[in-house]
Amino acid sequence: MHERQGTVDAVVIGAGIAGLMAASRLTAHGHSVLVLDKSRGIGGRMATRRVGEAVCDHGAQFFTQRTHDFHGVIEPAVHDGAVAEWCRGFSRDGSIGADRPAADDGHPRYRGVRGMTDLPKWLAARLATQGHEVEVRTTAQATSVAVGDDRVRVTIEGQNAPAEVVEAAGCVLTAPVPQALDLLAAGGSLDQLDAHAIERLRTVAYDPCFAVLLVLDRPSLMPEPGAIQFGSDAPGPVAWVADNQKKGISAVPALTVHATGAFSREHFDVPPDDVAGMLIDAVRPWIDGDPRTAVVERSVHRWKFATPTTVLPDPFVAASWSPPILCCGDAFAGPRVEGAFSSGAAAGMLFAERLAGGSR
Ligand SMILES: Cc1cc2nc3c(=O)[nH]c(=O)nc-3n(C[C@H](O)[C@H](O)[C@H](O)COP(=O)(O)OP(=O)(O)OC[C@H]3O[C@@H](n4cnc5c(N)ncnc54)[C@H](O)[C@@H]3O)c2cc1C
Q1: How many CB atoms lie within 10 A of CB 351?
Q2: Which of 74, 212, 336, 342, when mutated, tests ligand 1's pocket best, judged by the most ligand atoms within 8 Å of its CB?
Q3: CA–CA separation, 153 vs 175, rounded Å?
Q4: Would the pLDDT of 140 be above 50?
Q5: Given this model, what pLDDT does residue 102 score?
Q6: How much is the average pLDDT of 34-57?
Q7: Domains with residue ranges and CATH for the chain
Q8: CA–CA separation, 139 vs 16, rounded Å?
Q9: Region 40-48 average pLDDT
Q10: Residue to mutate (ligand 1; options 13, 45, 152, 263; most atoms within 8 A of CB)
């Protein structure tokens, strides 16, 4: 296909929370930014999906807010009606019945008001009002990142659109680290980058996660506040189960079931329908009656890069400073929404300062 060319200060690959925060810091400093996401919507692993009549969060389920910086973003998001407190803790014990209180450790757990994508959507809408040149483009897949003449060239393929090369002073990569390294390799750039940084990035690995969404024809038997957190290292197959109706985002009862990392690794190549059957068996105590009749619709999703199992201690890693190519996301500041937020914000801030320092 015909190739188009464009120029921008920074390209951000990924419109999850890390990418949106990096873009926010860059635009706040007056830099022009192009944010790309290969998916149809924004939010990445903060994902909400409609299944029949139900609305289900199928990636991240809630987030905490422990740092001052994140508080500064969450407070206005709560004020604008995008985010709400869900609860202050979850049952960790599957034997706890609906009549027993959940754990309360005093730390608020937040959710999007209509689903977890509400926070990324709110951040993207705020970006658009910052008054600087910023574009968030979906169904736009970066296929390579090349380096030359102290600039980066990002090749983008969209649905039914001609391939495009965008040239920029630098780039922020928020895709899972193995995929970010693939983009640099596809651009033929790896040998021009910081070899030590690339070695460190190669140590990052992720666990997969099966997510099964089950729409029910009757209320579930889940205890308040509508979720049980068994934990990613639970002995059984289930790490988490939540009722999206009790959570307050779905008009009808619908469970989100997440498998543990160990179960998901072990069953990665098993047909998804068989995996769904095993997970339905495991959550039977919270389904009222026979699942064969109570479950009216189901959907299975396999997250390949769900949770980083190696988290680097740095807020982000610079594969290069000249030009800036910064890798960030939840593999850096912690394997959760708040970690991805901090990592993206730190990368965006340092990149913005670098550009303002005249090194472009
Ligand atoms: C099943 C599951 C449950 C979770 N539960 C919780 C929870 O309860 N609480 C919590 O705090 N965290 C949870 N997490 C973790 C949390 O979702 C992540 O830490 C956080 O959302 C990561 O944000 P990010 O921006 O770093 O990455 P992502 O959200 O993954 O964003 C990266 C984006 O890059 C895009 N992308 C990738 N490659 C390309 C390319 N080549 N071109 C263009 N775009 C590209 C992707 O489409 C994606 O949108 C969970 C994750 C999963 C999968």
Answers
A1: 30
A2: 336
A3: 17
A4: yes
A5: 62
A6: 97
A7: 4-46+121-205+310-356 (3.50.50.60), 62-67+88-109+206-308 (3.90.660.10)
A8: 14
A9: 97
A10: 45
